[in-house]
Amino acid sequence: MLAIAPHQTDRQILFAGYRFFLAALMIFVVMKLLGHPVRYRKQTLIPCLRIALFQTFLQYVCFYVGLTYTTGIHASILAGTGSFFQILFAHWMYPDDKIDWRKTVGLITGFSGVWLANLSHGALSSSLGIGSLLVLASAMSGSFGNLLARNETHRMGVFYLTAWQMLIGSIGLIAVGTVRIGLFPFHFDPRSLLILLYLAFVSATGFLLWNSVMKVHPVGKVSLFLFLIPLFGSLLSSVLLHESFSPYTLAGL
């Protein structure tokens, strides 16, 4: 296997760049098979760059750097704040998606859970640390990118927008990793290559589905699904990374 250690942020970012680059290529192949136009359109450059910056590049750079300074469980819980940021951004961006008293209660309850989950022995632990702040910045960037993508899908189409923004974002991630460790520091065997292809497929499918849902549904309703991130992320961190739950983490969830 590739043996990427938790502190090797440069390798994690480069691997993410590989993943999103392959995911973009997979979407291009599907577009070709479905008869969708693949050719780049010059007038879409600025919107695609803007979406790639927030939805792919900044979101994952901040996340992987932040993950170095916090646990997987805490990172998963903090990543779930993307739903709150999305609702807040939608309040300012869409006249028909304002925050009402129900959303206000939900936001207060949700942020209280995040705060509680980051308590340790009755005191704040990593909630004000650099790792937590970077994961929060990742959630904020991804949420803003989601809304930018929502605004453009009606003009570009979900497949075109998703493929090109992932391609542009992946090039940025690869560039960051390459500056530190070179372009090809990994030695792939058949198993690790299959894992990379699987993760690329998951990324391509996930982004396509998410952008499609965001296109046709109100932001407030769609954002509820982001609450599943802390739940599944914490469970997987416990099972795969052998991280333990504190009473505060369980209460926060």
From TrEMBL:
Name the UniProt record assigns to this protein: Transporter
Top-level taxon of origin: Bacteria
Organism: Polycladomyces abyssicola
Annotated membrane topology: Multi-pass membrane protein
Domain EamA: 13-118, 130-253
Pfam families xref list: EamA (PF00892)
Entry GO terms, CC: plasma membrane
InterPro entries, per database record: AA-Vitamin_Transporters (IPR050638), EamA_dom (IPR000620), EmrE-like (IPR037185)
